[in-house]
Design brief:
The protein is of the alpha/beta class and 138 residues long. The chain has four helices and eight strands; from the N terminus they run βαβββαβαβββα. The chain has one domain: 2,3-Dihydroxybiphenyl 1,2-Dioxygenase, domain 1. The two termini are 25 Å apart. This is VOC family protein.
Length: 138
């Protein structure tokens, strides 16, 4: 089995796609006006309109309601990312901080309130978890 994608349901696909393109530097692939994907070598972030929810079932998803999932983006330098995001992000949850598990993390919220962790491994143990990913980003 392979995790194919993580999907965000939103009321404004265009705004959320624009945010993630600016925040990550990854161009979205628009499969439909109601659906887009940001593809990386390790996974895909899908963005879908609330208009697609009835196709999935009655009231199975709700925009702006997430408080339990965090999106993690591996970056070369968290401090540089923090500076680059100043004109993109409205809500900074936690400035770059060294975490006890060996990562330096920056926590922000996207326009729908979803939590995003931009991180860089700083300990040798943490770097060993991502040996080929650093310096190979889109």
């Amino acid at each position: 089995m392979q995790l194919a994608a993580t999907r965000i349901i939103t009321d404004d696909v265009d705004a959320l796609v624009a945010f993630y393109e600016a925040a990550t530097g990854i161009a979205a692939v628009r499969l439909h006006p109601l659906f887009a994907e940001l593809r990386t070598p390790s996974g895909t972030l899908a963005i879908a309109s609330t208009a697609t929810v009835p196709l999935l079932g009655d009231d199975v998803a709700e925009a702006h309601a997430n408080r339990s999932v965090m999106f993690d983006f591996l970056v070369d330098d968290v401090d540089e990312t923090n500076t680059a995001l100043r004109d993109v992000v409205e809500v900074f949850v936690k400035e770059p901080t060294d975490m006890p598990w060996g990562n330096r993390s920056l926590l922000v919220r996207d326009p729908d309130g979803n939590l995003i962790n931009f991180f860089t491994p700083i300990s040798s143990d943490a770097r060993d978890r991502f040996p080929n990913e650093l310096h190979n980003e889109n």
